[in-house]
Design a protein that fits this description.
The complex is a heterodimer of chains A (691) and B (609). Chain A is α+β, with helices and mostly antiparallel strands. Chain A is built from 17 helices and 33 strands. Chain A starts with 6 loop residues before the first strand and ends with a strand. Classes of the chains: A alpha+beta (691), B alpha+beta (609).
Chain lengths: 691, 609
């Protein structure tokens, strides 16, 4: 690091692209670079992206990194040869799972496939009771014998899970410490170090996933660190977690599951940061790419987080107990294939042409018409300016495929078929948004702003917003780099949770304070170790609670003031209120109990100050208008739409639809009646026409 | 401690024909659309609108589900998903249903039709809420309260929004074995819970006085009404957006699509008459007296008829139901369009069901119905068994076909209060297929997205300690493809508890197909303080455990498929490595004797884990 190092660099590795966003703190300049992900050597993509952005690692005081390495290792099953050591009588928990059969009529339904097969799941004699007391002592002799076997089998990673370890970590730690000594070079992970919550199947699945991906992620991060060092990087290297918060490199190399969904999370964090700048409290983050559309929620200025997730989908996925931005996903993207069923029904998705062979218009061998082909045929995309003109699109081929496969079989015109595909795609994407709101008991109507990003988000946002009756769409700057951008605005964060079953009546406030303090001590220690010099620390507290007799607990954010005052009634009130909001009724007269306590320690980082862009008049400059194009709109038919170059727009510019705003990685569509205003920071603020 | 003795004479006696043999109308009274459309051109409907309506209907019932699950009070609704929400057209035909449990595919449409018939369109008004829990209408036990709200558009009924959910308690005796419907709780005939928007308070008070936890019941009731209202809102929006005519035409199209695709699937089944028989262990009253399940399936062209006329007459114990048509529909859907959404009546138009009144799956008052869900699962399996010679590649061998639940209750030593725990629900083995082993330890056919409960949760709440929860080695039926494994769990009582089970298929174990062998059956066991354990010859057990004694639940495996000699050696070796089978079974069932090298390669903790 040169003494004047002052740039923070964020690199986000996604499935298709690697994005770099860099911010020069002194000059206040944002620099961006996008390149294809280099799957054989991911680091090459980072270096290439930095070159494109025009930054070197030497200039950096902070390197922030998000990557799909963790989730891909899990989904592609390319992890380590791993073993599990668990309580006697419970090695099958991981394979039995929760026994559900969501695909109920499918006789070919399958269960989740464990990452560790039965012969590598070992049992040892030990048992804790629910209160953490020892029911049966740990037999270390058995552990020693298993260790010898693991060595013989050349096991690369070991997960350790004992029942009720969230109440008493002693047995897990004893085995963990022994194995680390006995099997040097083997990746050892104990469940209580990752998660201190009850639910043995989900906890087993979490610690196994960590062990399974651990060696590869550890190795990968180590390589990047080496590369950075050889590039004379002397700053801090932080990794993005699934909460969008940052953690230290050495933590990431051990607690790998926490970076599972870093990319999508960072986009929601970017939305949250823009909400603060723009004075918006409630918004939907809408991210659409080639294969999926994702929706997250910012509520009262904070991105909503959930405590568990299924990796690989609900039907056959593996659960993780790890905090994560709450994101609802549907399998609709630019590559979604439209088809006509044998009985003559029109469907869009769930099959996707992905990036390869991709839509018909890519000319890479795709033969099935997709959402992107429909956009091209309807004039929403310019065949010559896709990805800044790097890829020529074949409109004739797209038209022919739509005609042959969709329009003719249904007796529709090609344009009606194409518009139909977009309408159906918009309807299903609106369900993603509804999923992330209504499932939490939130009214989608209470979120009047939709932030649209990802390569296809701005293209579809006006249709999705209409579907949901959302009056305002915001297309941020660099919507195609938004996750990397979001990383620049993130904070150091540690989420801590511990199951603690106790009636609210029975617990002393002092006792609660002690438990929280223990958790927070861990978070503060992690912050100190990271040595970031953060001055401001924010602590958040929550309790998982339920009414006595219920099974299902909800996470209730608690005001810190209640703990200061020792006001137990305020805790109960907060729970009753949330219960009423989410479940339709609260029961102030019923007793409640605590299931888990949660704490979030945030080390607030110095943020890059967003720069305003140059001001202009209401009428955009001449050079911003690059021409007009015929575009087909619902209820309007073909209309001449003005085409603008986004880079040339100035703050204060106002554009009335129909219009298209083009930039490197995406196009924003304004429908007739929509009005766009470029706000001072360069974000496009679109008022959707009222019907 | 007492359990039922087992009669020695286990040979299945031929059951008498049911007395009432009045033919019930086939389930599909409507004329076949697809054959109509061959003759005349279909009405022209915008295919985009059809797809938008289809998406909206699926989303509507999903949201009704979400509302119900979020707002209900009892775990049977939000964990076991013991409910169904649905939208029905003005004739009561299913437009879309959100499950819930697969076996509820039928009952709600029948209830809506019964309501229509009872009041007539003229006597159903905006703001009415129609209610019943009549077992002989819903087909299930009294816990299933079914609420419907009519949806009006321009003064006419266009749809019904309906929600059925399982109430934790509906009165009646708490434990033991019932022998008539009167001992099973409050019966509510077809009544209006709201009349033109006004709550019938007397009816509400009557209901709440008859249930053990009126506060919880009221919570669940309100949740059901919220779900219904959500459905009404969605249908109204749909009508406003597309117009009633388009929605109706689109709905016709959706049903026609489902019908056409289902017919295309039936056409692939060779014409013929296919029959099969299987047996339930007993009815919990006449212990050891097997109960016959007989089905006859006729396939002709693109139509299938399931004839259940030779089923056992209704039984003395509480295993009766009116789920016969549902059984046929579940099997039919599995074989034709398992993933067609929304679930709608078009799918079932090629299916006819013949079923007289008074069988064990078409019971009449006052037959006891409390454990209605057990037998129908075996009926579905038997339909697959009947069709196995015709479509071996589509069917599945028998599964464990029981919920394996236990009612456990007693005084909690921590607070001296009564605790009640619905124990078990441990999952079991599923049958093998013509090209694939069966699935291990998964919930039975009656249930879908139902979850078991974490052991750590059980131990935190109840004076019980889970000794183990494992897969049962050798429980899957042998075959070219092996049946899935069942599970075993043992729970140690840390204080005195009462224990009641109502399991079946202990004696009559899950069968194999095409030469595949049968699996181990379900079992209930007890471990005494001295460590010895024993298993009951029957699945209906009612006893009290002392501190230090354990109960054991074992679920059966799935049947095998194809002859054992065709199983690949490497598959047997893999099963051995994973401990799915024991070395004895490898030798006995597959005739495979390991070489010294293969033996040495086996993990130390193999089968006995």
């Amino acid at each position: 690091m040169t003494p004047q190092a002052r740039t923070r660099i964020a690199a986000d590795i996604g499935g298709t692209f690697t994005d770099v966003a860099a911010f020069d703190e002194k000059r206040g300049v944002l620099m961006l670079g996008k390149t294809l992900t280099t799957h054989h050597r991911l680091i090459s993509g980072i270096l290439d992206g930095m070159r494109k952005a025009g930054v070197t690692i030497e200039e950096a005081n902070l390197f922030l990194h998000g990557s799909t390495i963790a989730i891909n290792t899990m989904l592609e099953r390319t992890g380590a040869k791993a073993a599990l050591i668990t309580t006697r009588g419970f090695r099958d928990i991981y394979e039995i799972g929760r026994i559900n059969r969501p695909d109920s009529f499918n006789l070919r339904h399958r269960k989740h496939a464990p990452l560790i097969e039965r012969d590598l799941r070992f049992e040892v004699t030990e048992r804790l009771k629910a209160d953490g007391s020892v029911y049966q002592e740990l037999e270390m002799g058995e552990v020693e014998a298993i260790a010898a076997e693991l060595e013989r089998l050349k096991i690369e990673a070991v997960a350790v899970l004992f029942l009720h370890s969230y109440r008493n970590p002693a047995h897990e730690h004893k085995v963990r410490d022994y194995l680390r000594k006995r099997l040097p070079g083997v990746f050892i992970s104990a469940s209580c170090d990752l998660v201190q919550e009850y639910r043995e199947y989900e906890r087993t699945s979490t610690v196994v996933a960590n062990a399974y991906i651990g060696p590869r992620v550890d190795n990968y991060l180590g390589e990047i660190e080496q590369e950075m060092k050889s590039g004379k990087f002397g700053g801090k290297f932080l990794v993005v977690q699934s909460t969008g918060g940052l953690y230290a490199l050495n933590e990431a190399r051990q607690d790998c599951v926490r970076m599972m969904e870093s990319g999508p999370a960072a986009g929601v964090i970017g939305t949250q940061a823009l909400c603060h700048v723009l004075g918006i409290d409630n918004a939907i983050a809408f991210d659409m790419g080639g294969t999926t559309a994702k929706a997250g929620v910012v509520r009262e200025g904070t991105a909503l987080v959930t405590g568990s997730v299924m990796i690989g989908g609900y039907l056959t996925g593996l659960p993780l107990l790890t905090p994560m931005i709450d994101i609802h996903e549907v399998g609709t993207g630019g590559g979604s294939i439209a088809s006509v069923s044998v009985s003559g029904a029109l469907r869009v998705g769930p099959q996707s042409a992905g990036a390869s062979p991709g839509p018909v218009c890519y000319g890479l061998g795709g033969a099935e018409p997709t959402v992107t082909d429909a956009n091209l045929v309807l004039g929403r995309l310019d065949p010559k300016r896709f990805l800044g003109g790097e890829m020529l699109l074949d409109k004739a081929a797209a038209t022919a495929a739509l005609k042959e496969k969709i329009a003719d079989p249904l007796g529709l015109s090609v344009t009606d078929a194409a518009l139909g595909i977009l309408r159906i795609a918009s309807a299903s994407m609106s369900h993603a948004v509804k999923g992330v709101t209504t499932d939490r008991g939130l009214d989608p109507g209470a979120f009047p702003t939709l932030f649209a990003y990802g390569g296809a988000g701005p293209l579809h946002a006006s249709m999705v917003a209409r579907e949901l009756r959302i009056p305002q769409v915001i297309v941020p700057r660099a919507p195609g780099h938004f996750s990397a951008f979001g990383m620049l605005l993130s904070d150091f964060r540690r989420d801590l949770v511990r199951s603690q079953f106790i009636g609210l009546n029975a617990v002393e406030m002092g006792q609660l304070e002690t438990w929280f303090a223990e958790l927070e001590q861990q978070g503060l220690a992690a912050l100190t170790d990271a040595d970031l010099g953060t001055r401001k620390i924010v602590i958040g507290r929550a309790l998982d609670m339920r009414y006595v007799g219920q099974e299902h607990a909800v996470t209730v954010d608690m005001p810190l003031s209640a703990f200061k005052r020792g006001d137990k009634k305020a805790l109960k009130r907060a729970f009753d209120t949330l219960h009423e909001e989410r479940y339709g009724r609260g029961s102030p007269n019923e007793q409640a109990e605590i299931v888990s306590i949660r704490s979030t320690v945030t080390g607030v980082m110095k943020k890059p100050k967003l720069e305003k862009i140059a001001k202009g008049t209401a009428k955009p400059r001449k050079e911003a208008l690059t021409g007009t194009r015929k575009v087909y709109f619902e209820g309007k038919g073909w209309a001449q739409a003005a085409v603008y170059q986004r880079d040339a727009l100035l703050a204060g510019n106002v554009i009335a639809g129909p219009a298209l705003i083009e930039e490197h990685a995406t196009t924003t569509v304004l429908q007739p009646g929509d009005t766009l205003k470029v706000e001072p920071y360069g974000n496009l603020q679109i008022a959707i026409a009222k019907k | 401690m007492a359990t039922h003795p087992v009669k020695k004479s286990a040979a299945p006696a031929k059951a008498a024909k049911p007395k009432s043999a009045a033919l019930r109308k086939p389930a599909t009274a409507r004329p076949s659309r697809a054959t109509d459309t061959k003759k005349k051109a279909r009405p022209k409907v915008d295919p985009v609108a059809v797809e938008l309506v289809r998406n909206s209907l699926v989303a509507a019932t999903e949201e009704m589900k979400s509302v119900l699950m979020r707002t209900s009070y009892n775990m049977i609704i939000y964990e076991a998903l013991d409910f169904t929400v649905g939208l029905f057209d003005a004739q009561g035909q299913t437009m879309s249903i959100g499950l819930g449990l697969p076996m509820f595919i039928r009952g709600m449409s029948d209830v809506v039709k019964a309501k229509l018939e009872h009041w007539g369109e003229k006597d159903i008004h905006p703001g009415d809420i129609l209610l019943t829990n009549d077992s002989y209408l819903t087909g299930a036990h009294l816990n299933h309260l079914t609420f419907s709200m009519p949806v009006f558009h321009k003064g006419k009924i266009v749809a019904f929004s309906t929600c059925m959910a399982h109430w934790q308690d509906i009165g009646g005796i708490l434990n033991g074995f019932t022998t008539d419907i009167y001992s099973e709780g409050l019966q509510i005939p077809l009544v209006k819970y709201h009349v033109r928007g006004k709550l019938n308070t007397e009816l509400r008070d009557l209901i709440l006085m008859n249930v053990r936890r009126p506060d919880r019941a009221e919570g669940d009731l309100e949740a059901q009404l919220s779900a219904c209202r959500m459905g009404v809102k969605h249908v109204e929006e749909l009508m406003t957006r597309h117009g009633a005519e388009t929605v109706t035409a689109a709905m016709d199209e959706i049903m026609n699509h489902s019908e056409a695709e289902a017919r295309a699937k039936v056409r692939l089944i060779p014409d013929g008459v296919y029959e099969a028989e299987s047996w339930m262990d007993d009815d919990a009253i006449d212990i050891g007296e097997p109960v016959p399940i007989r089905v006859k399936v006729t396939v002709k062209g693109d139509e299938m008829t399931v004839d259940l006329s030779s089923m056992s007459p209704q039984v003395k114990g509480f295993f009766n139901s009116c789920a016969g048509v549902a059984c046929a529909q579940v099997a039919f859907k599995c074989l034709t369009l398992p993933r067609d959404n929304p679930i709608n009546d078009g799918n079932f138009r090629p299916l006819k069901v013949i079923i007289p009144q008074g069988t064990v799956v078409s019971a009449t008052r006052p037959a006891p119905m409390r454990v209605w869900m057990t037998y129908p699962m075996t009926v579905v399996d038997t339909i697959f068994k009947a069709l196995a010679p015709a479509i071996p590649d589509l069917v599945i061998a028998g599964h464990h076909a029981d919920l394996l639940t236990a009612n456990v209750n007693g005084i909690h030593p921590a607070d001296g209060k009564l605790f009640m725990y619905l124990g078990g629900l441990i999952g079991g083995g599923w049958g093998a297929k013509s090209d694939e082993d069966g699935v291990n330890v998964t919930v039975c056919m009656n249930d879908g997205d139902t979850h078991n409960g974490p052991s750590e949760q059980v131990e935190n709440k109840f004076p019980l300690l889970v000794k183990h929860y494992t897969m049962r080695t050798d429980s899957g039926g042998a075959g070219q493809f092996r049946g899935g494994l069942g599970a075993e769990t043992e729970l140690l009582a840390l204080s005195r508890v009462n224990f009641l089970t109502r399991s079946d298929r202990v004696v009559n174990t899950p069968w194999g197909l095409n030469g595949g062998q049968s699996a181990m059956g379900n079992q209930i066991g007890l471990r005494k303080k001295d460590g010895t354990r024993s298993f009951f010859p029957n699945g209906k057990v009612n006893l009290r455990l002392d501190t230090g004694e354990s109960y054991i639940l074992r679920s059966g495996g799935g049947g095998g498929f194809g002859e054992v000699k065709k199983r690949k050696r490497e598959s047997v070796l893999r099963d051995l490595r994973l401990g799915y089978i024991s070395r004895q079974a490898a030798e006995r069932d597959y005739g495979i004797i390991l070489s010294a090298a293969e033996l040495a390669a086996l993990p130390a903790q193999g089968a006995e884990g």
